[in-house]
Amino acid sequence: MTTADLLLVALGAVAVGAGVLVVSTRHIVRAGLWLVVNLLAVAGCYLVLAAELVAWVQVLLYVGAVVVLLLFAVMLTRAPIGASDDLDRPRWPGALIGGGAGLGLAALFVSGYRWSRVDLPSPGTATALGEQIFTAWVLPFEVVGVLLLAALIGAIVVSRPDIGSR
Amino acid sequence: MHPVIPYVIAAALVGLGAYGVLVRRNAILLLMAVELILGGVNLVLVTADATVRAVLPAGGQVFALFVIVLAAAEIGVALALVLQLYRLRRAVAVDEIPLEREP
């Protein structure tokens, strides 16, 4: 166990614990706040795995934008502020499928990688990733840009009843 | 660094997200569970980038960036739909949405 391993185990424990609370808490707003903890812990994992730019983009975009949007939606739909008991359907089918998916994937990874060891790569700084994006991945990058524009226009059309189709 | 550790964390996140998607009734909580799944997928991509020495360097990290952007687009459209649903039905419980056209 190296330092990186210990950090990954600790951050992973935080991420999984916060994830459990996201899917099990009875307060809607608290689920959003636990999602922040989960996303920050996953960003910490990215940092340990030498993916600097991805970690900071995750903090900026997820914690800064996505969670704020989710909390806005919670407020706009007048969600109950206190604890509410009718947030969940019967649990056992979800537990069966979710647990099966998680355990199956974990078993697959464990059988594939055992306790093998790799050295961490050189850090994925903005320079390194920018070079890759604007040489090898420039076409997908442009397509993602067009998709973002389409999603933006779609969201506006959906939320404006006076310009949507009747 | 033992790659099995982040891989198992990612598998746990995906399982938790799948559980949340199937169990939660509130559409916004369901979207939060989808974010958990996407976080797990991103962790797999970044770990694979650190584990496999591919021909194109940093391909996994570039993919992770794309997935983050797609998640942002997804959440924008999905929340617009949820708000529209709330405007029409005054509720966002996904199992109370009538799938048939109303008479």
UniProtKB/TrEMBL annotation, chain A:
It is a multi-pass membrane protein. It comes from the Bacteria. One of its GO terms (molecular function) is quinone binding. The keyword Magnesium does not apply. It catalyses: a quinone + NADH + 5 H(+)(in) = a quinol + NAD(+) + 4 H(+)(out). It is an enzyme of class 7 (translocase). Its EC number is 7.1.1.-. Keywords: Cell membrane, Membrane, NAD, Quinone, Transmembrane, Transmembrane helix. The keyword Cytoplasm does not apply. The chain crosses the membrane at residues 6-24, 31-49, 55-74, 95-113, 133-158. InterPro entries: NADH_UbQ/plastoQ_OxRdtase_su6, Nuo/plastoQ_OxRdtase_6_NuoJ. GO terms for cellular component: plasma membrane. It is found in: Cell membrane. NDH-1 shuttles electrons from NADH, via FMN and iron-sulfur (Fe-S) centers, to quinones in the respiratory chain. Couples the redox reaction to proton translocation (for every two electrons transferred, four hydrogen ions are translocated across the cytoplasmic membrane), and thus conserves the redox energy in a proton gradient. PANTHER family: NADH-UBIQUINONE OXIDOREDUCTASE CHAIN 6. Belongs to the complex I subunit 6 family. This is NADH-quinone oxidoreductase subunit J.
Automatic annotation (TrEMBL), chain B:
It is an enzyme of class 7 (translocase). It is found in: Cell membrane; Membrane. It is a multi-pass membrane protein. The keyword Iron does not apply. GO terms for cellular component: NADH dehydrogenase complex; plasma membrane. It comes from the Bacteria. It catalyses: a quinone + NADH + 5 H(+)(in) = a quinol + NAD(+) + 4 H(+)(out). One of its GO terms (biological process) is ATP synthesis coupled electron transport. One of its GO terms (molecular function) is NADH dehydrogenase (quinone) (non-electrogenic) activity. The chain crosses the membrane at residues 6-22, 29-48, 60-83. Keywords: Cell membrane, Membrane, NAD, Quinone, Translocase, Transmembrane, Transmembrane helix, Transport. The keyword Transmembrane helix applies. InterPro entries: NADH_UbQ_OxRdtase_chain4L/K, NUOK/Mnh_C1-like. It holds the Pfam family Oxidored_q2. Belongs to the complex I subunit 4L family. PANTHER family: NADH-UBIQUINONE OXIDOREDUCTASE CHAIN 4L (PTHR11434:SF16), NADH-UBIQUINONE OXIDOREDUCTASE SUBUNIT ND4L (PTHR11434). NDH-1 shuttles electrons from NADH, via FMN and iron-sulfur (Fe-S) centers, to quinones in the respiratory chain. The immediate electron acceptor for the enzyme in this species is believed to be a menaquinone. Couples the redox reaction to proton translocation (for every two electrons transferred, four hydrogen ions are translocated across the cytoplasmic membrane), and thus conserves the redox energy in a proton gradient. NDH-1 is composed of 14 different subunits. Subunits NuoA, H, J, K, L, M, N constitute the membrane sector of the complex. This is NADH-quinone oxidoreductase subunit K. It comes from Virgisporangium aliadipatigenens. The lineage of its organism: Bacteria, Bacillati, Actinomycetota, Actinomycetes, Micromonosporales.
